[in-house]
Amino acid sequence: MYNAAIAAEFAPLIGFNWTLVMVFITFLVLYLILKKYFFEKVRAFMLAREQKVKDSFDNADSVNRVAEEKLSEYNAKLANAENERREILKQAKQRGDETAREIIVQAEERASQLVAQAQNEIERERLHALDEMQEQVALLAIYAAEKIIEQKLDAAEQQTIIDGIIKQAGAKEWTI
To answer: What does pTM read for this prediction?
Structure first.
């Protein structure tokens, strides 16, 4: 046993025998079978998978570009909308200012008309008061004259005297 152990120890590690040849031939046949039926399919699958991954990356890049373009368009539209909002507010303010000016002008015109009407009314009232005053003065003058002469005048004579006094007084300016 000791000799067998020493002999096994010094024996070559790989010896030539038919088992090794059969293993090599089996390996070669298995390789050729795998190459013909399996390796090409695996290679085609791997190439397809690689292409699919590349396409996914390309698609993702294009989607990102489109998204960035849409984002820039959105930002431009947003900025444009902000400018439009400012313009609309500016126009509304201008229209409001114009309307306010028109209202003020109309109010001033109406106030001028009212002042003119009031002045006309005041003038009419002044003339009416002046007429009444002239009439009262004439009546007072007749009454005084009547008292002086102590006689009674009838209405027709009284009216004649009043008209004469008014004509005479009309030549002078009456002031209030």
So the answer is: 0.39
Distance CA(112)–CA(133), nearest Å, equals 31
Angle among Cα 21, 26, 30 to the nearest 5 degrees reads 150
Burial of 134 (0-12, 13-18, 19+ CB in 10 A): middle
Other Cβ atoms less than 10 A from the Cβ of 44: the count is 10
5/127 Cα distance (integer angstroms)? 161
CA distance 10 to 92: 109
Q: Is the pLDDT of residue 49 over 90?
A: yes
What band does 141 get if pLDDT is binned at 50, 70 and 90? confident
Kindly indicate the confidence band of residue 172, based on its pLDDT and cuts at 50, 70 and 90.
low
